[in-house]
Amino acid sequence: MASDKVFHSRSQGIPSEGVKDQYADGKAARIWKKYIGDSNKRTQNYRTFLSGILRKHGCVKVLDVACGTGIDSMMLVDEGFEVVSVDASDKMLKHALKARWEKRRDRKYDEWIIEEASWESLPQDIESFLPGAKFDALICLGNSFAHLLDEYDDQRTQKMCLENFAKVLKPGGLLIIDHRNYDAMIDKGSTPGHSIYYNSSYPVDIKTSVLVVRGKPELVALDYCICPTEDGDIAEKSEFRLCYYPHKLDKFTEMLDDAFSNKAQHSIYADFKPLNQVPEPAYYIHVMQKE
Question: pTM for the whole thing?
């Protein structure tokens, strides 16, 4: 069931065919950029985890398929990786493009490639600006994949996009993808509060709503409220809603294995730690190594 039939996601713009852009009016993009800060605000655990896995497997060329404002991509550029960044939201991409322009005198940033692309047509979109390109690694992090809703009630679109991710990887390449702990959110009706990706200095409240249709969780809506700060950096209360498909761990694991024809090595982490060390993680991170 489409989200706009019951829940109204905050934006309905569609810059790339088939992918609804919940950041299309620019409001959430502006607030989100301020909320997550710059690449220095990324937690050291995240930086160490991601760069460590990439270096362990000898990855050089990395595709960030949900680059948003470019924060993760900039972190990887600073770490010395060759980064290609794509996103379906032109409103988010303009922040990444601005960041690249501001750092253009740094050779690493001058070589950073930023383009608009859709997950549903990813191999063709990549081919249009980098013919023949294959990547050592592809990242889709920060709960980004869950923005893709289940329009046909059979997850066919999600499955196709995961297969597209596998197609643009070199043999032995890595897919690093995550999702929130929707199992806990469905069971308890609340979002695990700790953040593993960024050290935000802004007070934020997240209200969680779970839409159940015919006994099946179909959609999770998170209403973000970021309050004014004493220093005036955020002058007034900012509110926006983002809607997500609630991927349960077992089903998402199965879809990933299917996308790689059950031939990939599949590791699962909980908040960047071994799965058995975190009783109730905020995020699950999957690492797939292509055959």
Answer: 0.85
